């Protein structure tokens, strides 16, 4: 029973995931593969596409340099296709910018943004945030043209906390000097993992000679291996996640930060963040249904026969086009240039001929 | 039962329709239960008369160059009125997400296509449904819409969410309002072009993430019927891939009826997919075979074009089928072998259908030259000026016909319209109608529409010079050295047909021949797209700020430092300290009173 109590100790009711790949260009194939591996694991463990915001800065699967189109592989010899057949990318290409990322996190999106591009979390949501790309001490590079600093990220999380947009947050980053990105967090209930410490580089795992690029980064490769063993009912906790990829395998030293997190990491299940576990109460009472519903007849008035005969349009009515009247242009008040020109003309005229000629005009 | 046992519920995709496929024979009996499960509100049409129907078909056409062209068409037709006062809430075959889009934005017609690759007309002939590379969207709104631009902006955002594409990049800088092209393809009387909007994104990438939601809009999804063949690893490993969606009102003559057509055209290359062997089968093309028709479909057919193979001397088609159909498509009479998937006998003993075409003899004779063909390229040198050339070929030996050319050029290529020339056969050819809307920087693109009469057997060349603009440094994309795309030109034409076209639009015809409505028997309407252009704009070197800062700081440090030193440094003479021997000698000399050593 203690185990059951522990199982129900997390206060979350729904799970969200924001997975971001920030690098562009073909040689950064591994960053897209990283993000898609985490996407695959998260989907496999139960989080639906409607609760995942996937941001990929470039298209590797259908890139013309890809010898096997519509695939992104994570193992050498093309063992595991992490792209799959059922993938929904919410932000792609040029849409992956620092501004859009921060807007997704804080929820301050323009009103016409569709649901699939929004993070509709509430105060009972556990959110997994995964970032990968090229980074440095205190910043992460987006698409080789802009960067996000650790201060901005910490402030965004604080905004999320004050707006009650998360219950608990797990932040994983796989970049060079990744630990610098979580140094500045100050909001409660955040647990962070990084693939390398400040001053260290995260290294890539293995190149594939057929594709010609490195397929994955080391940290995410071992993270994927670890996650492949997790299934929705497993009880592995965060302490095992901290042990993923020791220095002997990763060459860099993975780091983690748990001081802001209220619960003990040993009692936090992996599926609290990576999976979407529904808790179901089974009841043995019976419920009486009401009488079956009666089909109502269609009482709407039947539309009368259309009096005008509807026909298909002529696709290229040549005669009509040639004799088309020009479109009515909206009247605009005269532009500044025209007004200035007329003022100049009038001034010159009255200077030359004198003001007494006005009465001849008006 | 263990209370602590948890039940894991599968995620429910939000875009899937809630129609589970019952078998056709038991449909009527299960209808009542089925309706109870899916009923949303009290008013729904009585279930006994099915008001919507679904048809699917696949056309396989071997091309002259050894490649093979497969075209899927799925049509859902529904007798309903989205624009009535009461909201439609009971959806069966028609996808709910699209129905809500139509009613919310008062859409009269919607055409959207996503294409990867360029259709090579000279090698492959004419496609059934043309589409330009990238994403293309054109919409006719109802005349009740007051603010068309606002509705357009919101519609593009909603569609970008449905199809996982960056359609939200469609804004006023790439939207145009054509004045004569893109007349509605559905029924209607009024054509006020103010309600039409057209935009094209030539840079848009098509991949599995666009195919996934597109497949989910089909009534059977990708689980039954022809859609099981759509596997992304094979579909994107092709020379041409285009998926499109067309919604329009069609004529049922008693009431309005809405038609949703989803089409997927793909051309498989002989060498990359076919491994060089001239033998094509469903398994080779799609790595799947057909096992059943979609239970919700009223008709499910596979057509194979055997016009070039009347006695079976060119290629062998197996399994043999007795059904043969004739159709007039693209101005030509073609013969097709038909496989009816709703008939269980088609699947034979193995319960799977794998259509196989094996070539016996090498291809002989020339392919019939397509009557209309367009090309476009950029001429010139340097990064300041250039010239756009559009070539339109009329390959008919004696008939002249008119074409309508629509060009949308982004604002950063400033066209000099006074240099516009249209020449045919070396002489000037004055267009009978020109509509030009100049661009405004960062607000709207150039729009040029011309109606040109093409003389028979000629090449018409349209040239216009342009100048490249320098963008503000924040307006460059993250990869500016790739270049900037200019969308394809659209050439709409009424082409004379070889065989009399069928103008009776209400008759049941195969889907691929009934897309463009026919008004006359002697001509048929065709639309072709030219290549998109890729131009380089003068791009600054973005690493320069760093370099400039380093250089400037060095220069300032060296220059200012030297000047400061010169002005403030004073020189003092200082005695150098002497060696030990000398010091001792000097002490002795001082004692003696003799001049010291230096």
List keywords for this structure.
A: 362 residues; alpha/beta; seven-stranded mixed β-sheet; three-stranded antiparallel β-sheet; 11 helices; B: 598 residues; Immunoglobulin-like; 3 domains
Structure in words:
Chain A: Keywords: GPI-anchor biosynthesis, Membrane, Signal, Transmembrane, Transmembrane helix. Chain A: The active site is at 134, 176 (nucleophile). The complex is a heterodimer of chains A (362) and B (598). Chain A is built from eleven helices and ten strands. With 362 residues, chain A is α/β, with parallel strands linked by helices. In chain A, the strands form two sheets. Chain A has a seven-stranded mixed β-sheet with strand order 3-2-1-4-8-9-10. Chain A has a three-stranded antiparallel β-sheet with strand order 5-6-7. The longest helix of chain A is centred in the last third of the chain and has 18 residues, at 336-353. Residues 301-307 of chain A have low confidence and may be disordered. Helices cover 16% and strands 32% of the residues of chain B. Chain B has helices at 27-38, 96-105, 121-124, 148-163, 208-216, 232-235, 282-286, 544-568, 580-592, and strands at 52-62, 68-78, 107-116, 134-141, 175-176, 196-201, 240-251, 256-268, 279-281, 299-305, 315-318, 324-329, 332-340, 356-359, 372-379, 385-394, 401-409, 413-424, 427-428, 433-437, 446-454, 458-468, 484-486, 490-496, 523-529, 533-535. At the A-B interface, helix 1 and helix 9 of A face helix 4, helix 5, helix 6 and strand 24 of B.
């Amino acid at each position: 029973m203690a185990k059951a109590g522990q199982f129900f100790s997390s206060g979350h009711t729904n799970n969200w995931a924001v997975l971001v790949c920030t690098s562009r260009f073909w040689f950064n194939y591994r960053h897209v593969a990283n993000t898609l591996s985490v996407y695959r694991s998260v989907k496999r463990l139960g989080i639906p596409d409607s609760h995942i915001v996937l941001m990929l800065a470039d298209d590797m699967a259908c890139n013309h340099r890809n010898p096997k189109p519509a695939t992104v592989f994570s193992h050498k010899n093309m063992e595991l296709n992490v792209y799959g057949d059922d993938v929904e990318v919410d932000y792609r290409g040029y849409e992956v910018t620092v501004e859009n990322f921060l807007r997704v996190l804080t929820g301050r999106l323009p009103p016409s943004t569709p649901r699939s591009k929004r993070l509709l979390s509430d105060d009972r949501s556990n959110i997994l945030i995964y970032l990968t790309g090229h980074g440095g001490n205190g910043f992460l590079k987006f698409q080789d043209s802009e960067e996000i600093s650790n201060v901005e990220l910490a402030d965004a999380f604080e905004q999320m906390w004050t707006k009650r947009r998360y219950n608990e947050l797990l932040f994983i980053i796989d970049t060079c000097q990744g630990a610098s990105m979580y140094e500045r967090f100050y909001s409660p209930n955040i647990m962070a993992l990084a693939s390398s410490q400040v001053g260290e580089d995260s290294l890539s795992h293995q190149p594939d000679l057929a594709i010609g690029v490195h397929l994955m980064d080391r940290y995410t490769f071992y993270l994927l291996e670890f996650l492949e063993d997790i299934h929705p009912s497993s009880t592995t906790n965060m302490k095992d996640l901290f042990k993923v990829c020791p220095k002997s395998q990763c060459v860099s030293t993975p780091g983690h930060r748990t001081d802001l997190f209220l619960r003990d990491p040993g009692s936090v299940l992996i599926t609290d963040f990576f999976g979407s576990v529904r808790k179901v109460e089974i009841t043995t009472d019976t419920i009486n249904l009401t009488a079956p519903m009666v089909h109502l007849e269609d009482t709407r008035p039947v539309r009368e026969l259309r009096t005008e005969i509807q026909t298909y349009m002529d696709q290229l009515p040549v005669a009509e086009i040639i004799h088309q009247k020009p479109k009515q242009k909206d009247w605009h008040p005269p532009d500044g240039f025209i007004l200035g020109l007329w003022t100049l003309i009038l001034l010159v005229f009255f200077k030359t001929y004198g003001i007494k000629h006005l009465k001849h005009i008006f | 039962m263990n209370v602590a046992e948890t039940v894991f519920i599968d995620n429910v995709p939000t875009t899937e329709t809630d129609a589970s496929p019952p078998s056709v024979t038991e449909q009527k009996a299960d209808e009542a239960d089925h309706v109870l499960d899916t009923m949303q509100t009290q008013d729904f049409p009585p279930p006994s008369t099915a008001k919507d129907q679904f048809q699917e078909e696949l056309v396989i056409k071997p091309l002259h160059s050894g490649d093979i062209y497969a075209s899927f068409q799925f049509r859902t037709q529904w007798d309903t009125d989205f624009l009535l006062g009461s909201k439609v809430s009971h959806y069966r075959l028609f996808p709910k997400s699209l129905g809500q889009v139509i009613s919310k934005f008062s859409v009269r017609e919607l055409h959207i296509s996503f294409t990867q690759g360029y259709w090579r007309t000279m090698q492959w002939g004419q496609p059934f449904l043309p589409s330009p590379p990238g994403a293309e969207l054109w919409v006719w709104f109802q005349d009740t819409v007051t603010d068309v631009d606002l509705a357009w902006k919101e519609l593009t955002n909603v569609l970008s969410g449905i199809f996982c594409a960056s359609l939200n990049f469609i804004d006023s800088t790439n939207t145009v309002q054509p004045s004569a092209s893109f007349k509605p393809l559905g029924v209607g009387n009024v054509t006020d072009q103010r309600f039409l909007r057209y935009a094209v994104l030539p840079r848009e990438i098509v991949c599995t993430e666009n195919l996934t939601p597109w497949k989910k809009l089909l009534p059977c999804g990708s689980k039954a019927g022809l859609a099981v063949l759509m596997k992304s690893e094979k579909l994107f490993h092709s020379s041409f891939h285009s998926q499109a969606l067309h919604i329009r009102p069609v004529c049922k003559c008693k009431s309005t009826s809405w038609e949703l057509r989803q089409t997927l055209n793909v051309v498989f290359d002989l060498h990359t997919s076919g491994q060089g062997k001239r033998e094509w089968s469903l398994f080779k093309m799609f790595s799947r075979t057909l096992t059943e028709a979609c239970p919700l479909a009223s008709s499910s057919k596979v057509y194979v074009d055997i016009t070039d193979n009347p006695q079976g001397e060119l290629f062998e088609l197996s399994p043999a089928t007795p059904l043969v159909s004739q159709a007039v498509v693209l101005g030509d009479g073609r013969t097709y072998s038909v496989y009816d998937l709703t008939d269980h006998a088609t699947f034979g003993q193995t319960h799977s259908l794998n259509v196989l075409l094996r070539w016996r003899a090498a291809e002989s004779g020339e392919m019939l030259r397509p009557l209309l063909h367009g090309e476009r390229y950029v001429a010139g040198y340097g990064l300041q000026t250039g010239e756009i050339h559009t070539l339109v070929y009329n390959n008919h030996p004696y008939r002249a016909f008119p074409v309508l050319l629509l060009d949308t050029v982004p604002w950063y290529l400033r066209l000099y319209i006074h240099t516009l020339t249209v020449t045919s056969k070396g002489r000037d050819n004055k267009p009978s109608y020109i509509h030009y809307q100049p661009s405004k920087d960062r607000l709207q693109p150039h729009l040029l529409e011309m109606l040109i009469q093409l003389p028979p057997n000629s090449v018409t060349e349209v040239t216009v010079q342009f100048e490249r603009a320098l963008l503000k440094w924040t307006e460059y994309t993250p990869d500016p050295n790739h270049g900037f795309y200019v969308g394809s030109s659209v050439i709409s034409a009424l082409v004379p047909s070889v065989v009399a076209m069928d103008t009776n639009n209400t008759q049941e015809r195969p889907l691929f021949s009934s897309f463009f409505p026919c008004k006359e028997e002697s001509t048929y309407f065709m639309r072709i797209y030219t290549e998109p252009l890729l131009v380089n704009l003068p791009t600054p070197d973005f690493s320069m700020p760093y370099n400039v800062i380093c250089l400037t700081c060095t220069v300032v440090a060296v220059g200012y430092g030297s000047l400061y030193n010169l002005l403030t440094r004073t020189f003092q003479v200082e005695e150098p300290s002497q060696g030990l021997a000398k010091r001792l000698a000097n002490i002795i000399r001082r004692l003696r009173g003799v001049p010291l050593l230096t």
